[in-house]
Structure formats: C-alpha cells, structure tokens
Design brief:
heterodimer, A: alpha+beta, PmbA/TldD fold, about 25% helix, about 40% strand, globular, B: PmbA/TldD fold, 8-stranded mixed beta sheet, TldD/PmbA_sf (chain A), Metalloprtase-TldD/E_C (chain A), TldD/PmbA_N (chain A)
Chain lengths: ~450, ~550
C-alpha cells in the first residue's frame, strides 16, 4: 500500500500539477514499508513494522513559498492540499534564498533496489535474531542486536516538467556481544541494499570472537600510536569531514576549508597524496539515489583527488550567488583502498593498536576538525606482526585531516554505513587518556 | 551518507541539526496548532474501545495513549527568516501484556474501528513474542487514578504568539549581534506541545497538556587575517514553560563572576545576543590554556551536561541491566555496587535527586507514560549510591514496591520505555556564593555553559568543553581563556567535589534531545545545580594546526 509504482506516482503527481494556480509548484510523493527487531540479554525485546506514504506540495509566488502535506490521494484531497500550500505561500514572508523548481533533468539508472529486501518477513527477522543469539548463548556470551530494514520509493514532479522516481531497499544490522563476566565486548556491523548478502550468524561470530579475545585487557599508557583502523572506525571521522565540506561555510570563513586572509582550500592539497575519495551513485556495492530531494542529478565526482580538494558542495542558492554550477551533496562516498588484507597489515606492523570502532565522537574544534571519542568493543595491541593482547579502551583527540596526513598503508575496502572505506594504517594517532569501560 | 547532518551544510550550529519532529508528523498551517483536537469525552470513549478489544483478545494488561504532538520551529540567520516549520502528529499507541509478554501496535486511524484493530494487533504481537520470552513481565502495582488531568503551568502559549512577533524577536536579536561585531548568527526558536491522553486497565484516564520552549542561537566571529573563527552559543535553557520564558525579566538576570550575565526563569535574547557578539570577539584574542591540573568552578549552565552524562545515564536501570548494550551502552554503576550500600559515587557534598515534578523543568508531568504519579527520589545521598531510575516492569528488580514514574514515549507511534528523569545536584546547605567559591581557588578555571561533550559507553571516562572559560588566579578572575577541555573519570570527579554553592545559585538547564533506544527516541530532560568546585581536574589544550 505504501509503495507506488512509477506509473501510479506519476498519475498522482500529474493531477497535483493540474490543480496548481501558483507561479510554480513542486511535489514530492514518498512512501516506505519498514520493519525491525531488537534483542538484548539473549532474548528479543521489541519487534515492529511501520508503513507511511506522504505527499508534500510546495507552491510559490515569486520568492514566497508554502508547503502542505497529505496522505490521502483522492482528487478532492489533492486539490485541497494544493490550495492550502498556495494559501500558506501567500501569507509567507519573502525568502531571498528561495530557488524555484528545476527544469527537466536526466538521471542515470538507479541500482538501489533489491527484491529480496523488499520481501523481508517478520519470520525472517526472528530467524536472523535467533542466528545471532543462539551461538552467543552457547559460549557464555550475551547478545544484544538490532536489525532494521526498509523498502521505499521517492518521486517528485514540478510545473517545469521535471519528473523523478526511485525505489530503494536497505537493511542495517549491528550486534554487540558481551562476555558474561562483563570483561569482554565485541561488535560487528553490516549494511546492504540487498539482504541476501546479510549473514547475521557470520557477523555475530566475529563479534563473539572479539568479545572473548578482549576479556583480559591490559592498561597501556595513552600517547601517540600507530593504529590500524577497521573501516567502521574510520567511517564516522571521514563522514564528519565530508559533511564539513560545504562551500558556503568555507566561503564564509567558518570551515576547516577556509584560508587565512580569505578564500578557500579548493584545489589545494590538504592530506596525503594517496587519499582519493569520490562519490558514485551507480556503484553496485554502495548504490545511492541518482537524484537529490530537490531533483538535482547526482553523478560520479571526485571529492579529494591525490590529496587535493577537488570539490566542495554548493546548494543551488549559493552556486548562483557565487556564479558556479551547483554541486549536490553526495549520496555515498568511496575511498580508494589497496590490496592488503587486515592480516597482511597486522603482519606488517611492528608496534601498533587495532581499533574495531570509535564511539561518542563529538566536535571539539570545528576550525581544525578536532574530534574526541573513544575506542570500543575490541581494541588490541599489535607487536612484531601479531596481535599480542587486548588493551583497555582509549579516549582520542584527533582530526581526520591530521589522520589522513599520517597515512601509512591503505588496505581493502569494506562497505560500512552506505560508503566504501578501506582499512587504514595511521601513524601518530593521538590517544589522550584511558577508559575503564568494557 | 546519512541525512542527519544535512542542515550542517546550510551553516547552522550544532543544536539545529536534529529537529525533534514526532513520527509521522505532517506539515500544517500554523493556525492548526491552536485548533482543539478531540475532547476528553471522545478520547475516553476511544480508549475504552481499546481496553475492551484487547481484554477480549486475551490481554491481562492494556494501556492506550492517544497523542497529538505539535511542533513549531522558526529558523533565522542574520536578517533573514530561512524557514518556518509547523507540524502535527496524531495517533494512538496501544501496549498490552498477553501470555506474560509485551506487545505494542500503533495507528493513525483514530476511529473506533482503527483503535480496536490496533488493540487486537498488539495482543497478537504479544502472543507471537511470548514464544521467545524467558520470564514473564511483572508490573509493580499502581493506583487507578480515575479521570484526572495535568497542564504545564504556562502563562503564555507560544503557539498563540504570532509568527511575525516571533520572527521580529529573533531578527532583532540578530541585528544587535551583527551591530556588535558578529560575523554571523544562526537563531532558532523551538516550541513543543504534547497533548497526551492515557488510559489503562488499572482504571486511570489521564489527560495532559505539556509545553516546552527552547530559543537557541550561535554567534560566529571571524578574524580574516589569522583565519581563526570562534563561536559562542546562547545562554538560554530549554524549559518546560510557555512563551513567558522570553520575557527577560530583570529579577531573573544574574550578574555572575567575571561580569557575565546569566539567566534564571526567563531569558533576554536581545541582551544575550549583544553580549555574545562582544564575548566571541574576546575569545579570538584570549590566552590559550596551559594544560595541567586545575580546580574547576562549574556554573549551572555548564554543569547540567556533566550531571546528565555521568550521573543521569549510568543510573538508568535498563542500561544497568543490559537492554541498551548494543547502542547507548551499559553502566559502571552495577547492581553489586549498589547492593553494598557503600558505593562511593562522590564526596559527602554530593547529593543527587531525580524528579519529574520541578516547575519549569523539561521532565515535569503529572503522570508518566504508564500512568504513574510523578515524584522525587534520591539517587546519591551524602556521596553514596542509593537508587536508580526504574519503571513498572523493572522496579521489583531493585526491591522497590512502586515505579519511579519515569516512563516516556516520544510519540504515539513509539513504545514507552524507561527514560531519564530530571537529575539534579542538591544545592549546598551552607551559605556560599559563586564569588566566595572562586575566592578560595588559587589556580583554577571558571566555566560557563556547555560545549563539546563525550563519554564512554559505561560512563567512566569523559571530556567536556564549554562556551566561556576564565582563568582563576589567587581567588580572582584573571581574564579569558580558550582551547579548554577537561577530562576525568566519573567516580574520581564527583569525589573531587569540595564545595557546592547554596540554593540562591541553583538553576536548571537541560536538553531537548536525549537519545536512546533502537529505533531511536528523543526525550527532553532538565538538570539543576548551583556553581560547584572540583579540585585537581586534568585540563587539556585543544588547539591544533592543520
């Protein structure tokens, strides 16, 4: 019910456009079916399903715009929602930054939908949870996890002839395994568009191993260490950096990309030349919607090339003001990796620390992108090419910009949080204190 | 990429990134926010449909929440209103126990048929989940209260103030900031109204009208020559009050140490924006802190967040028991420590109370979301851990005969669970002003308002920043500092507490956005304290060059 086909969505949106009497009108029709299961203490705690479909209509008169929403799609309801958006637009103050609807665009072919995910049942979720809980219970370990899946569509149309439609599916799984003596903890995360790639037993096995192996953690002095970051550990820091690459913030002088004396670091080398980060909505491992919520086409595009800032993100208003083409915010990020496996990277490390993940990451200084946070769920000391022993968790204070300047080795890529991120070996990573947390 | 930081691209400050919009919220005309929904008679009739339908289907317990959640956001920067968002979310959530197991279902079809169907669905889910249940749910008793009501004691309903008046206030404050040398200001007003009707098979029919208000700005100053930029956030608090919070009455202003103007039960946005612009320029040229051990004097507008993270969270019983292990984490304050009755959480000066009753606080309601009358209780007494925060299905585990009344759901579509009550540090018994407290410190830092924050998943190790930092030398404020953060461990930190100012200095601050659960739910909570001294805390310098 909540999922409309391309033709059904087009038919509804065409009616909306016909009712419009404003200077311009744009409508987004989105819907989704979702489900989840949560477990803790080796038993299911909550499970649920939800579905929703919403039509949002925005009308504008000049730079005055109004928005109204409805979830009924008969002709009378559609006309009513258009009239209401027009009334609100007439009452609204002028927004000097309002940008009218876009002309018709051309989009690439979407790869975000997988049939298997759209057909997930409550029984599938219960079994996925059981496949995680049962091996834990057999090993004196307690499982807590969460599986969430969604199948949705997004569509939009405007009075300038733009029409866009996309279907997508997603599944996210995280699991934390804790030894029953409270001394060891392990974690794993998986996310896919296609649920047939998900094996909760495989992910749970890794988390159980980490929990058991981390239960005799030693305290070592905080300081600067060579670290091997698993992709899930590096992911949040890298995403935080990408989120801070808005052109407007940089042009206004309040960004790590702003330069002393004015101007920005666009075109300048800011990290190691082996760092290449790009976006590609059509990558089959990490597909993203071919268009943005305001109808702009997404394309493959460099963000950092050979360590140089190749693009900052311009919304349509700021692009027009600066006289450049808009650069929409990317739907995914892909960091090029190398060929080394994690085992190869450990073998090649004399002294270092393997980090499973970071937790509670917060900005300390937006000027330098200094972040603080802690290691969690599996932190190990590496000595002479081998994992020597588990260590207590650390607090770090580090900037992804400094981190990417201290790059030693890039390993294989792994999908994490919708992005492709490689294992990374980094020198001189700053751990500033110890934590007793397990 | 996640959408969570979408707004950051528009250059808004940290607090603006998560608009606390309820599930299934629809954008509406602002006048809709003043229209009444169902009257109490209609709500009771619908609630009885749910109670009867679930009982017939085999439920041994049922509660039904008919909720209407209204939000308004006015979003401005410098001389522009960037956006105005008005949302309404209306529906019903039904929670049951069948076969000793919880089941929950929700619907936005608030008709007799829709509600009966959801009630039966909740029972079916409970029965299906009961196959996995290892021990049946046990609820501690609660009184049936009959037909009762509660309303946040507001003087002015913010939704009745015209959008133009609100926008004018924000734009006026923005103009003062710009005149006083700010490079930019982002200024946002959030208004929340929860109209909640609760009924349960225990015999309660509770109608509540809850209001919250939060004005928030960030002023930025840029020094083009050095390429430095600094920010100062507003000294406002999110409050459980109406629009009267923005009256900025003279009697609610406090001139604190270092000449900083602070606010109590009402807030002067225009004055604060003016000061923020002046102070943020001062931060640019302030002395960078020398790292080392300092005695800290922490102002209530700062200390609330340290209390929230290092006391409020670890004393949530669901975290202690492991229900949040995969997300928010567990707790160092384990049951065995509590059972000794000797666990030294802090020094003798440290007394923490939890409550859902303080007037003006974000947590204040008459009854919680499972129909328990709210109250106040001790968590830490004379430094010793004495209790947790627990709801009806947990209270028995810690030997309590009644729930603490801290159950909450952020929407009709979310299942209610244990959430943090207001958790506050009791003011000192002896007469002590902040000036006297600072007067006793030889080498210290005085910190005003919360800033950066991070704590581990069991709530041992933390690091906090702030908005304004002042060096204390030989009992006197010796100028502004920058690049300050302090690191400590919860138990060590609260044991280093040596002085708490008296009740004249006690004030509330808090958060609209306390996150917990999967799928995530947001809750609003306040924390009170007076200015407090901690000895020998590790201060780090956060300046870097990239």
């Amino acid at each position: 019910m909540a999922i409309f086909s391309k033709d059904e969505a087009r038919a509804i949106l065409e009616k909306v456009m016909k009712f419009s009497k404003a200077d311009a009108c744009e409508a987004n029709l989105n819907g989704s079916n979702g489900g989840n299961i949560r477990y803790a203490r080796n038993t299911v705690s909550t499970a649920g399903e939800n579905s929703d479909v919403t039509l949002v209509v925005q009308s504008n008169f000049g730079k005055k715009s109004g928005t109204a929403t409805v979830n009924e799609f008969d002709d009378a309801s559609l006309e009513k929602v258009v009239r209401r958006s027009e009334e609100l637009a007439q009452l609204a103050p002028e927004n000097p930054e309002f940008m009218g609807p876009l002309e018709q665009q051309t989009y690439g072919e979407s790869k975000t939908y997988a049939e298997a995910t759209a057909k997930i049942t409550p029984e599938y979720r219960a079994q996925a949870a059981a496949n995680s809980i049962n091996p834990a219970a057999a090993k004196d370990v307690t499982a807590a996890g969460f599986l969430e899946d969604s199948y949705g569509f997004a569509s939009m149309m405007n009075t300038k002839g733009l029409f866009a439609y996309n279907r997508s599916t997603n599944v996210n799984f995280t699991v934390t395994m804790r030894t029953n003596d409270g001394l060891g903890s392990g974690w794993a995360t998986r996310d896919y568009n296609d649920v047939s790639k998900l094996d909760t037993a495989e992910a749970s096995k890794i988390a159980i191993e980490k929990a058991v192996k981390s239960s005799t953690a030693k305290a070592i002095e905080p300081g600067k260490y060579t670290v091997i970051l698993e992709p899930a550990a590096a992911s949040d820091l890298l995403q935080n950096m990408l989120f801070s690459m808005g052109a407007r913030q940089a042009d206004e002088g309040r960004s790590f990309l702003a330069k002393k004396g004015g101007g920005t670091k666009l075109g300048e080398k800011i990290v190691d030349e082996r760092v290449n980060i790009y976006t590609d909505p059509f990558n089959t491992e990490v597909p993203a919607s071919p268009w943005t919520q305001d109808g702009q086409a997404r394309k493959k595009m460099d963000i950092l090339k050979n360590g140089v800032v190749s693009n900052m993100f311009y919304d349509r208003y700021w692009a027009e003001k600066q006289g450049v083409a808009p650069v929409p915010f990317p739907g995914n990020a892909i960091m090029e990796g190398g060929t080394a496996s994690l085992e190869d990277m450990i073998k090649d490390t004399k002294k270092g620390i393997l980090v499973t993940r970071f937790w509670y990451i917060r900005t300390v200084d937006p000027q330098t992108l200094l972040y603080t946070g802690l290691t969690r769920d599996g932190t190990f000391y590496i000595e002479n090419g081998k994992i020597a022993y588990p260590v207590k968790n650390f607090r770090f204070n580090e900037s992804p910009v400094i981190m990417l300047n201290n790059l030693e080795t890039l390993g294989k890529q792994v999908r994490t949080d919708g992005n492709l991120i490689p294992y990374m070996k980094i020198r001189d990573f700053t751990f500033s204190s110890l934590s007793d947390a397990v | 990429m996640r959408r969570r930081d979408f707004v950051q691209l528009a250059g808004l400050g940290a607090g603006a990134m998560m608009l606390p919009v309820s599930a299934f919220a629809k954008s509406v005309d602002p006048s809709r926010l003043l229209e009444p929904a169902l009257d109490v008679i209609q709500k009771k009739r619908l609630a009885d449909v749910a109670l009867n339908a679930s009982r017939s289907a085999g439920a041994s317990y049922t509660d039904v929440r008919i909720g209407r959640y209204l939000n308004q956001f006015v979003i401005t920067r410098e001389d522009k209103v960037q956006n105005m968002v008005n949302t309404e979310s209306f529906g019903t959530g039904i929670r049951v126990i069948a076969n000793g197991t919880w089941g929950f279902a929700s619907t936005n079809d608030v008709t007799e048929e829709g509600i009966a169907k959801a009630a039966r669905q909740a029972v079916a889910i409970a029965k299906a989940n009961s196959k996995f249940q290892t021990s049946p749910v046990e609820l501690v008793p609660v009184k049936g209260y009959g037909e009762v009501s509660y309303k946040t004691p507001i003087k002015k309903n913010g939704f009745e103030v015209t959008i133009k008046d609100k926008a004018d206030l924000l734009l006026n404050a923005n103009a003062r900031a710009m005149e006083n040398g700010a490079s930019y200001i982002n200024n946002i007003l959030f208004l929340v109204n929860e109209q909640k009707y609760f009924a349960s098979s225990e015999g309660s029919y509770i109608d509540q009208d809850v209001h919250r208000t939060w004005p928030f700005f960030t002023v930025t100053a840029i020094d083009k020559d050095s390429g430095q930029f600094k920010q100062r956030g507003s000294f406002s608090a999110p409050v459980g009050m109406g629009y009267e919070y923005l009256d900025g009455r003279a009697e609610d202003k406090i001139i604190g140490p270092a000449g900083v103007t602070l606010y109590d039960k009402s807030y002067d946005m225009v004055e604060d924006a003016t000061m923020a612009a002046q102070q943020v320029k001062e931060i640019l040229s302030a002395k960078s802190v020398e790292p080392g051990k300092y005695d800290l004097a922490l102002e209530p507008s700062h200390l609330w967040l340290t209390i929230h993270e290092s006391v409020g969270h670890p004393l949530e019983l669901d975290r202690v028991l492991g229900y949040e292990a995969n997300y928010a984490g567990t707790s160092f304050a384990t049951l065995d420590k509590w059972e000794t009755k000797k666990f030294n959480y802090g020094s003798k000066q440290v007394n923490f109370v939890a409550d859902k009753t303080q007037v003006g606080s974000l947590g204040a309601v008459g009854w919680d979301d499972e129909g328990v009358k709210t109250k106040e209780w001790d968590l830490v007494k004379d430094g010793t851990l004495v209790n947790y925060q627990a709801i009806r299905d947990q209270a028995k585990i810690i030997g309590e005969t009644e729930s603490h009344g801290c159950c909450y759901a952020d929407s009709w579509s979310s299942v209610q669970f244990q959430r943090m009550a207001n958790v506050s540090l009791k003011a000192g018994e002896e007469q002590l002003t902040p000036e006297q407290l600072i007067g006793g410190i030889d080498k210290g830092v005085y910190i005003v308002k919360d800033g950066s924050f991070s704590i581990d998943q069991q709530r041992y190790n933390f690091q906090f920043g702030g908005q304004l930092f002042f060096e204390i030398k030989n009992g006197k404020i010796a100028g502004m500092l920058k690049d300050v953060a302090y690191q400590s461990n919860t138990q060590e930190f609260w044991n280093s507490c040596v002085q708490v100012c008296d009740s004249r200095d006690y004030r509330l601050n808090g958060s609209f956005f306390d996150g917990k659960g999967q799928p995530g739910q947001s809750s609003a909570v306040s924390h009170g304290s007076a200015t407090t001294r901690f000895n020998g805390i590790n201060v780090i310098n956060t300046a870097r060059s990239i």
